[in-house]
Design brief:
Layout (H helix, E strand, L loop, with lengths): L27 H4 L1 H9 L5 E2 L5 H4 L5 H11 L15 H12 L11 E4 L3 H9 L6 E6 L3 H11 L5 E5 L5 E2 L1 H11 L3 E7 L11 H14 L2 E5 L15 H4 L5 E6 L12 E6 L5 H15 L6 H11 L4 H23 L5 E2 L8 E2 L2 E2 L18 H14 L5 H10 L3 E2 L1 E2 L10 E4 L5 H19 L10
Parallel strand pairs: 1-13, 3-4, 3-6, 6-7, 7-8
Antiparallel strand pairs: 2-9, 4-5, 8-9, 10-12, 11-15, 14-15
Helix pairs in contact: 4-12, 5-12, 6-7, 8-9, 13-16
Length: 460
């Protein structure tokens, strides 16, 4: 046997370790952040409407909520692992009773698993599918769902389209056709409600329709309901558990968005009717066993959760929080709707919206001059490298690079699915004057971009 030695070392070369599916683990929201930091190094002041972190955006958590957290931290239990890997019994029981206080399905604490945010649950759900199993994911949708799905498959995720001409709702007949095309490979359908990045809230008729389709085809509805408490504009939110009846289902929830406490890293999953459905019970138990192999999820937020959600002030807090989000969305809508060639659906929940461009609006020759800054030549060269080094650069990502070179950080919509060119913005920044000035400038920059000529043509 001939051994391959590394020259000059005298030892065997390190064997390949990485799973080739890792190329699919893309998360454009955070992948662009180092680029924004680089532009800031050149002296560009960056206004960020890119990530769904209320705290980083300047939102202040209410004092009474902070006090509950501080008081809970005095409990020595909050410093250790959870008493059970699937979560503190008190938190799981509270979640179950909260679910049971509503109409619809009833659950117990044995139907609840806590994790350090919803992302580990998404990862577990995908990695525990039977061989060649597929979950249909929405486009546009939260990148973690499609990314973990693609990693699991070793190829691109399988999508169903949301329709911007119909308030970003899915076409149920299209979903049926996709289910039939992939036949028994499909194990479940991911539904994000309220929507990220769309801000859509599904009406009861759509939710019932999705549950019925899942029941008809024997697939599992998996509803990401992390934004369930952030709904506004007179919109009614319908939980999966409200309408699921005796069918199987899973709901994902989180404390990150409504307290808001993203740094707490506290999410959970609720399983519905697993005692009636053998395959869901088996799947849920495998996920439970997997979490038992790990250190438990964060204890402090679990202990604080019943105290925060159970406080009589929490309802008023949500009303005020949602009103703030509605006003912030309206401010941005008023600017965005004035951009010719751009359409935007008014959000009804979460804190995002996803403007999209008409076909033909964007092309490869459009660009913006870099704004005045202390190291403008370096910023120009950096933008040049970004535009030239990435093969098959999506047109909306090209626009985003140009906007970043002018101090505005949004996220390309093709990072959330392949079907639409546009960008996602958040509605979190509470600085009204800054938001107004930023979106007025965004309007001007996009108009300039559309009408631009390739003044840096030699770069591309």
């Amino acid at each position: 046997m001939i051994l391959n030695f590394v020259k000059g070392i005298g030892r065997l070369a390190l064997r390949k370790i990485a799973n080739e599916g890792g190329i699919f683990l893309n998360y454009v929201i955070r992948e662009l952040s180092p680029i924004a930091f680089k532009f800031r190094d050149f002296g560009i002041t960056m206004v960020q409407d890119n990530i769904g972190d209320p705290i980083k955006a300047g939102v202040k958590v209410e004092g009474w909520i902070k006090k509950i957290i501080l008081d809970t931290a005095e409990d020595d239990r909050s410093m250790g692992y959870s008493s059970e890997a699937e979560g503190e019994a008190s938190a799981r029981d509270f979640v179950a009773q909260h679910r049971n206080s509503r109409k619809g399905v009833k659950i117990s604490l044995e139907d609840v698993i806590f994790a350090s945010g919803s992302s580990p649950i998404i990862s577990e759900i995908n990695s525990r599918l039977s061989e060649q199993g597929i979950l249909l994911v929405p486009s546009p949708g939260y990148p973690a769902h499609s990314s973990y799905q693609a990693f699991n498959l070793g190829r691109n995720a399988v999508y169903y389209k949301l329709d911007p001409s119909n308030k970003w709702l899915p076409n149920l007949e299209d979903i049926k056709r996709t289910l039939e095309a992939y036949n028994y490979m499909v194990k479940g359908i991911i539904v994000i409600n309220p929507g990220n990045p769309t801000g859509a809230v599904f009406p009861q008729s759509i939710i019932r329709g999705l549950v019925d389709i899942c029941d008809e085809y024997g697939v599992l509805p998996i509803f990401d309901e992390c934004y369930a408490n952030t709904v506004y504009g007179g919109t009614e939110f319908v939980h999966l558990g409200d309408v699921i009846g005796g069918a199987p289902g899973i709901s994902l929830r989180s404390m990150s968005k409504d307290v808001p406490w993203p740094g707490g890293r506290c999410g959970w999953m609720e399983a519905y009717n697993q005692e009636k459905h053998e395959h869901l019970k088996e799947f849920f138990e495998i996920i439970r066993q997997s979490f038992r192999q790990q250190a438990s999820s964060t204890t402090l937020p679990q202990l604080a959760l019943p105290k925060i959600y159970g406080d009589e002030r929490f309802s008023k807090h949500l009303q005020e929080w949602n009103y703030q989000l509605e006003i912030a969305a309206d401010m941005r809508i008023n600017h965005l709707k004035e951009i010719a060639g751009l359409s935007v659906v008014r959000p009804q929940g979460a804190f995002y919206m996803a403007p999209i461009f008409e076909d033909g609006f964007l092309n490869e020759s459009q660009e913006l001059p870099v704004m005045n800054c202390s190291r403008r030549d370096e910023a120009e060269n950096y933008l040049k490298s970004l535009l030239s080094q990435e093969p098959n650069l999506n047109l909306d990502k090209r626009l985003v690079y140009n906007l970043m070179a002018n101090g505005i950080f949004v996220v390309p919509l093709t990072g959330f699915g392949p079907h639409y060119h546009g960008f996602r913005v958040t509605t979190l920044n509470p600085n009204i004057e800054q938001v107004d000035a930023t979106y007025a400038r965004l309007k001007e920059l996009i108009s300039q971009y559309q009408n631009s000529t390739n003044v840096r043509g030699a770069w591309i």
